[in-house]
Amino acid sequence: MAQAVEEWYKQMPIITRSYLTAAIVTTIGCSLDIISPYNLYLNPKLVIKQYEFWRLITNFLYFRKMDLDFMFHMFFLARYCKLLEENSFRGRTAEFFYMLLFGATVLTGIVLIGGMIPYLSESFAKIIFLSNSLTFMMVYVWSKQNPLIHMSFLGLFTFTAAYLPWVLLGFSVLVGASAWVDLLGMIAGHAYYFLEDVYPQMTGRRPLKTPSFIKALFVDDAVVVARPANVRFAPPQAEEIHHD
User: Fold this and answer.
1) Residue 220 has what pLDDT?
2) N or C: which terminus of the chain carries fewer CB neighbours within 10 A?
3) Are 76 and 164 in contact (CB under 8 A)?
4) Is residue 144 one of the residues assigned to a domain?
5) Does residue 226 belong to any structural domain of this protein?
């Protein structure tokens, strides 16, 4: 059993493995009082006035108490982060990292701006950890890229992946969780989907082109297509060979 878990962990792509590890270590550290959540949560005043810039990152790593809700989000983080990185972003680790960076930036911006709007500031002030929202963003992006996959919710009913975010949002409301957290993830996910998939088809321009300095941080392995064994490949015909 332990060996199987170890193999499963080692086979995870780098971004998924790193994020999952950081989230689990941070949450366990807080549960054991090794780390204080008060040093991790998003606090704009401390970021700006006390230069505690790490809060812009650490608020995405803490998933609150280690309960059923924690296991629920770890499952979705491991599953959909892995599916995105291995399929939609296969061989494009830099682009996947940039997607997460974009989502984190959008979520942080929404909370900061929302905190300045009358009648909404009180609600946004309660959102001090955005880890769940970033996880929900990945679920939303995956559902948009795989809308026709058939899924089942707790074996009760089936639906296509396009409705997965809405099903999970309804479940959060039913169990009494804050809908704001999921809605923020959906907003960030839709912003990425629109700018990356819809807008380029409309205009021919890609506003979310990954910066070169981010690409320099990752060395992606080439995607190799294995040649079937015992199969001969005929040489190209003469008319298919061109000379300059």
Assistant:
1) 54
2) C
3) no
4) yes
5) no
- Number of compact structural domains in the chain: 1
Considering the domain boundaries, does residue 114 fall inside one?
yes
**Smallest Cα–Cα separation from 177: which of 136, 137, 216, 215?**
136
Contacts of 178 (CB under 8 A, 6+ apart): 126, 172
Strand partners, 151: 159
CATH code, domain with 84? 1.20.1540.10
State the DSSP H helix or E strand holding residue 56, giving kind and residue range, or none if neither. Answer: helix 55-58
CB contact at 8 A, 147 and 162 = yes
- Whose CA is closest to 187, among 242, 221, 140? 140
Q: Is residue 241 part of a domain?
A: no
Give the torsion through C-alpha atoms of 67, 69, 70, 75, to 10 deg: 130
**Residues spanned by the domain of 20:** 2-219
Residues in the chain: 244
Distance from C-alpha of 162 to C-alpha of 140, rounded to nearest angstrom: 8
Residues 232, 106: Cα–Cα separation, whole Å:
51
Provide the 3-class DSSP secondary structure of residue 150. Answer: strand
Distance CA 149, CA 121 (A): 38
